[in-house]
Amino acid sequence: MSTVTILSTAPPTSTMVDIPANATSQASPPIVYFFRLVLSFASAAYSALLLSFSSAWSLFKTILLPVRSLLTTFSSPLLYILAPVIVLGRILLEVLIFAPYSLMTGAAREVYPIYVFIGATCIWAAFVGLCARGVTHYMRLLMFGPEDTTPTHERESAKIAEVPRAKGAKKVSIKEETDVKTILR
Questions:
Q1: Tens digits of per-residue pLDDT, 40-51?
Q2: How remote is the C-alpha of 41 from its chain's centroid?
Q3: What Cα–Cα distance (Å) separates residue 74 from each residue in 13, 65, 89, 163?
Q4: Does residue 56 lie within any of the structural domains?
């Protein structure tokens, strides 16, 4: 066993302490203790849960035994009496739930490839359309330059203000015409 010698000198005295070299390697980190604690807790919880479920199942079986014997005794006449209701319920269940469900799943299974094809086509068409829009935008910028960003009403008012009036222009007014019946009287 190897030892490490640490020499600590304080002003009045000096101290020598022998510490084993592997003393620090023997101590485990705190996480190991935590995992051991969690593992032992999980094991105890599992054992308690298993014991409680097995006890509950045995109690349930003990209570269920007389009920089961009563049900087997009365089930034959009860099933015989309720046979029309049971058959009607099965028919209604088949007609109202199982048949439409199987028809819809079969139709969906057959239509699925068409749905995927049309969906992929729409996505591709949107991509091509957006790319074409971008290309035409940049081509228009290259050919005609940037757009005028002033609002339309300001451009229109500027155009009206620029139009010169001719000298000696006559003002024209429109008179209201009278009704034909009043003229004929």
A1: 999 999 999 999
A2: 36
A3: 99, 15, 21, 106
A4: yes
Domain encompassing residue 23: 5-9+15-70
Q: Per the domain annotation, does 89 fall within a domain?
A: no
3-state secondary structure 42-95: HHHHHHHHHHHHHHHHHHHHHHHHHHHHHHHHHHHHHHHHCHHHHHHHHHHHHH
Specify the pLDDT at position 1: 47
Domain count within the chain: 1
Question: Is residue 177 a part of any domain in this protein?
Answer: no
182 within domain boundaries = no
Q: How high is the pLDDT of residue 128?
A: 98
Q: How many helices (H) and strands (E) does the chain have?
A: 6, 2
pTM of the model: 0.35
pLDDT digits (tens, 9 = 90+) for 65-113: 888 888 888 888 888 899 999 999 999 999 999 999 999 999 999 999 9
Contacts of residue 42, defined as CB under 8 A and 6 or more positions apart, other chains included, come to: none
